[in-house]
Amino acid sequence: MNKKKTAFTVVFILILLLAGVLVGRLSTALSSHADHGSEDGVTDVPAEYTCSMHPQVRQPNPGKCPICAMDLIPAVQAKSGVDHPRRVTLSSHATALARIQTSPVKRGVAKSQIRLLGHIEPDESRERAVSARFPARVEQLYINYSGQLVRPNDHLAALYSPELLTAQVELLSAIRFNDEAATRAARGKLSLWGLSEATIQSIEQQTEPRDTIDIDSPIEGYVTEKRINEGDYVDTGQVMLRITDLSTVWVILNAYETDKPLLRIGQDVTFTTPALPGKTFEARIAFIPPFLDETTRTFRVRVSVPNPDVSLRPGMFVTAVVEARVTSSASSIDASLAGKWISPMHPEIVKDGPGVCDVCGMDLIPIEEYGSIGDADEASLLLVPTSAVLQTGKRAIAYVEVPDLEQPTYEGREIVIGARAGDFFVVASGLQEGERVVTHGAFKIDSTLQLHAKPGMMSLVDEDKVATVELQSSDQMRRSLTQVLHAYFPLWHSLAMDDLSSASDAAGKLASMANYQLDLYGEADSQVYFKRALEHMARFSASVAAATDLGQARVDFEHVSNTLIDAVRVIGLEEGVEVHLAFCPMTFEGRRSDWLQNNQQLLNPYFGAKMLKCGDFDELELPVRNPQPKPGVPPGHQH
Description:
Among the domains are: 137 residues, Efflux pump adaptor protein, beta barrel domain (Elongation Factor Tu (Ef-tu), domain 3), CATH 2.40.30; 119 residues, CATH 2.40.50.100; 155 residues, Four Helix Bundle (Hemerythrin (Met), subunit A), CATH 1.20.120.
C-alpha cells in the first residue's frame, strides 16, 4: 500500500514540473510576439493598464481602478517624446480609450451673460426735505405716520410763529396803505419762508393775521421720515419731514471685479424680483462708479427704472441679467449709444442730439467723453473653449494637438487668457487661430506626462512650488485661511443641495472674503504663494456667483476647492478647526474631484441629489507648525 502511495506522489510531481515548463515557454512566446508587434515603443494592443491617479495599479486588461474607480489607461502606449519635454504621443487605441476630443481655436464675437444680484433704492435726486424756515411750534400735524402718500400742495403741518405773525402784519399794513414796494417785499418774505401763492393770497384777503400757517408738500411722494410731533418746537433749518418721489427708482446691482471689463454705460439690463413673479423689467445702466465698495468688494452698478405705477418698492431684491459683449479695447460705453448726447450730472438722460438735461438744465455732452466705443461688429477676438483651459493659479494651460504626425501627439502650452465670455475664454497669447486644443481628456494627457516623468501641468504651484517649499506660514496666514474656509463651507453645502441661488450668494461672500484677506498681505517672498491662492479663489468664486446653471457652477467650484485644499496643505489652519477631505472618483471626464467638509456626513457637491452620497473621505495632511525657538536662544543657534 505504501509503495502505491509513493508511486502516485512521484507521478504527480512530474506532471506539475511538466506543466510549469509548458507555461514558461508559452509566456516567452507571447512576450516575443508582443515585442515584434511594437514600433518605437507603441503597441496596438497594450500589454498593461494603469491608473492616472494611482500609477502603482497595474492590470493586464482595461477596467476600473480598484482605488478611485477611474478608467484605466494604457501604461505602455505613450512615447517618451524626448524631443519635447511637454509633448506626449498616444496610439490610436489609447486616444480612443481616453475619449480625447479636440476643437479649433477660432475668432469671433465674444458674448457673455452676466448674472447680477441687487436691490431697489429710492432715486436720490427725487428726495425732498421739508425744513422749518422760521422758528415755530407745531400746533397740528396732518401727517400721522411714515409711508403716507402726499401730493403737491397737500397740508403737512400747521405752525405757530411770532415771526410769522409779524410778517403777516407787515403785509396787511402795506396793502392798507397801498404801498406797492412794501407789499412786494412782504410777499417775497413770506414766499421765501415756503408759503405757497394760494396761502399768501388767503392772508391778503383777511383783515387780521392768522395764528397758524399750513405748510404744504412741495412734491408728490411718500413720507419716508417723520421727525416731529404735535407740540414740538422747531428751529430754523430743522428737518421736519422727508418725502420721496418713487415714480423713478434706482436698481443697485453688485458687480464683481471680474465683471467690470464687461459692463458699460448704456447697456440693456433685464431684471426680475420675487415680489412680482412673472414680470420682467428692462432698463439701461446709468452709472458705474470708479471705485469699489470696501465692505463687499463689489461695484454698485446703478440702473434708473421708470416706476409710474409704483410697483417697485425700495428694499426689494432683484436678479438681473446683462448680455455683455467682450471687446479687445477697454470700452466703457455700449456701441449702440454711438453719436448720442448725455447729461454730465444725470447719465440716465440720453438724447439723439445736443440740448439740455431735463433734470438739472445743464448742457448735454457727447457720450464719447465718457469713454471709447467699440466696434459693434468686432469679430477679431481669439476664443478658446473653457473646457480646454487648465488653470493653475496665475497660469493657464492648454493641450494642443501637434499637426502632421502619424500618431496623435499633444503638447502642453502656457497661454494668457482674458475675460470669460460664456463657454469661451478670450486668448491674449499662446495660441493661434486654427490650432486644435484638447477639450475632453486633457486631464488624462496631463497624467500620462507625469507617468513618464515629464513635467505635469495640472498643479496649482508648478514652478512656484519650489518657492513655497520653504514657506514659513504665520499665525496671520492660518487665521486668514481659516476665515476663508468657513466662508467656503456654505458654498459646498448649497451645491450639494442643488440650490443655485444660495450657492450664488455664498460664492459672492467667499469672493469678498478672499479679496478682503488679499489686502492684508504685501509682496514679501513668504506671502506670494498665499496671495496667488487667494486671487485664484476670489476669481473662481465670482464665476460661481455669476453662473446661470448648476453645471457651470460646479466646474468653477472645483477650481476653488483644489486651490483651497492646496493652500490648507501648505499653510495650515488655526487649531481646533474641524475639516475633512472628501472626494468623488467619477466626476468630470470620469476623474476624481475633491472638496472639503466641516463634518463627516458626506454630501457630494458635484452631483447633488443625483448621487448625494457618492464618494469617500481621504486623509488631509496639515503642515507641522514652525517650531518656536527656546527663550534666549536665537533662531538657528545650536550647541
